[in-house]
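ok trying again, last paste got cut off:
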Amino acid sequence: MTTIQDGTQMTLAEYRDLPETDGGLWELINGEVYQMLPATIEHQFLMDFLVRMINNLMMAVQPAPGLAFSNTGLALSDLYAPTPDIIYLRSENLHLIHSGYVECIPDLVVEILSSDRNRDLVMKRDLYASAGIPEYWTLDPVNDVLTVLELSGGEYVERRLGRDDTLTTATIPGFALPLEQLFGDPIRALARGNR
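nice, full thing came through this time. structure:
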C-alpha cells in the first residue's frame, strides 16, 4: 500500500490509483494531495438533509431531472480533484460518473464550512468559478447562513440567505426550502451537541 502525506505531489491519474482516496477523505488541489478532517456529526446532518431534500423533489418527478449525492470526487483537471460535500447533476450528465468520480462540470456544488473557512470561501470559490461551475452554495453552520453563488461573467454573484429565507434555485426547478426547516431541525440540535 502506498503511504501518502499532506502535500504529496501527483497527477489526477496517480491520485485516482491510490486506495487511500476511496471514501472521499482526500482531495487533489493544484497537484497536491490533502487529507480532509472527518466531518462533524452536525456537518454530516446538514449534508444529508440537503441531499435528501433535493432528491425527494427529484423522485417526485419521473423521469427524475437530476440527482444530488455527497462526498464524491470531482475530476476537474489533471491537477484538481476536490471532493465537495454535495454535487448535483442533471440526469443527462449522470453517465459521466466513473469509478466514484464525476467527469464533467456539475450543475451545482455545495460546501459546508468547517474550521478552515478560507479553503471553501476563497480557494474553492476561485477553483469552482474558473472551472465554470454555474452554481456554488456555501453553508455556514456557525451563523446559520447559506450563500448562493451564481456564475456571471466568470465570477460568482452572491445571494445570502438566513433562517427566515426560502432557498430557491433555477438550477433545480421547483426546489424551495424554507431554511428554518434546515437550521431549526431538532435533530440538528442533537447533532450540534454542547457547542
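cool. Helices lie at 12-16, 41-59, 117-131, 179-183, 186-192. The CA atoms of residues 7 and 59 lie 41 Å apart.
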